[in-house]
Specification:
The chain is built from six helices and nine strands. About 40% of the residues lie in helices and about 20% in strands. Strands 2-1-5-4-3-7-8 form a seven-stranded mixed sheet. A two-stranded antiparallel sheet has the order 6-9.
Length: about 190
């Protein structure tokens, strides 16, 4: 009898887990966000036919995000022609699209910017701080979430470039280990 229950439980888990993951993937793809013109759009409209979508959660009021702008620009520049779309996601109550757009213009960055006002997309993605990233694959599966690299203070001390490794792995159809649970000094979403 115990063997029967174990096999039944195993069957339920094998059948249910992929269904839950597929539902979560659809929820992210169908998430509604405001674009920089304050028009409600679906996140899926930004991915288009690209294989990878990279969401970079930022805040112009976050001191750590301000240390990362050049690294974010580097990721956008390095992968824009390699089947990956990099999108900035703002939404903090003390921030605005205008503030972030000004930073983009000053740094000559042509990244799409969306506004996640109530942090629904961040919650779906498991993000709590800025700057953190999510790499989404071609079937809307989350392939990576977490830090950009291992040195928030000084770019010259970087030993591991998590985002670069995650995008490279994603373009090869692989998942990278998440780095969202490590101690991180960025600003909490608010």
């Amino acid at each position: 009898m115990t063997r029967f229950f174990f096999i039944s439980f195993l069957f339920i888990v094998i059948w249910t887990v992929p269904a839950l993951a597929a539902e979560e993937n659809r929820a992210v793809a169908n998430a509604s966000v405001l674009n920089s013109k304050k028009k409600l759009i679906r996140l899926s409209s930004l991915k288009n036919d690209r294989e990878i979508l990279v969401l970079v959660f930022v805040a112009s009021t976050c001191p750590v995000t301000n240390l990362y702008w050049e690294r974010i620009k580097g990721a956008w520049y390095n992968y824009r022609d390699r089947n990956a779309t990099v999108v900035l996601v703002g939404g903090n109550s003390d921030d605005s699209t205008d503030k972030i757009q000004k930073i983009l213009e000053e740094r000559e960055m042509e990244l799409p910017l969306v506004w996640d006002e109530k942090h629904a997309l961040a919650r779906m993605s498991g993000i709590e701080f800025t700057p953190e990233v999510v790499v989404i694959g071609k079937n809307w599966e989350t392939l990576y979430r977490g830090r950009i690299d291992d040195s928030w203070r000084d770019e010259s001390h970087i030993r591991q470039r998590y985002l670069d490794a995650a995008i490279t792995a994603a373009l090869s159809g692989q998942k990278s280990p998440d780095h969202v649970d490590e101690v991180f000094i960025g600003s909490r979403l608010r």
